[in-house]
Amino acid sequence: MSGEDVRRLRRDLRQLLRLLGVLDREEARCCGVSLAQCHALLEVAGSPGLSLSELAERLLLDRSTVSRLVDGLVNDGLLVREASPEDRRYVTLSLSRQGEALVGGVERNMDEWLGSALRTLAEAERQKVFSGLELLAASLENAASRECR
Q: Phi-psi bin for 51: left (phi > 0), alpha (psi -120 to 50), beta?
């Protein structure tokens, strides 16, 4: 692997992140929440009953930051925080009805935007995109886990 390959990957990832970031910011802004709040809501929507620690791990943020984030979402009526009946220290998170409606709108808009992008590709190209992204994600995760040791 050459240094040119690494620079090309970095350049292409920056462009992809900028494009996705613009969309994320616009989507979050139109829904009246911050980008971080939007990501938290989407994670909870995908895994109802998620704990605060699990959410922090998924968002790659520290627990205190996620706690403040969740406090705001609970106060805004978008998330419900419930203590476990077995262990009152263990708190689970789920979407409120208002949170479900907001997430539904975000997901519909994202599906529409990404669907229109995917429709420009032939089936074989779409499969290459999916395979490439899966390989890249696994490789980055592997590299990150080696770094943490």
A: beta
Instruction: Return the residue matching tokens 């980055």.
Output: 140
Four-point Cα dihedral 64, 69, 73, 75, nearest 10: 60
pLDDT of 27-80, one tens digit each? 555 577 887 888 899 999 999 889 999 999 999 899 999 999 999 999 999 999
> Any idea what DSSP says for residue 2?
-
On the CB side of 10, CA atoms within 13 Å amount to 6
> Is residue 93 exposed (0-12), middle (13-18) or buried (19+ Cβ within 10 Å)?
buried
Which tokens in the block code for residue 56?
């922090």
User: At CB < 8 A and 24+ separation, what contacts does 58-64 make?
Assistant: 61/36
- Of 114, 118, 76, 117, the C-alpha closest to 95 is 76
Alpha helices in 1-149 (DSSP H): 3-31, 35-46, 52-59, 63-75, 97-118, 123-147
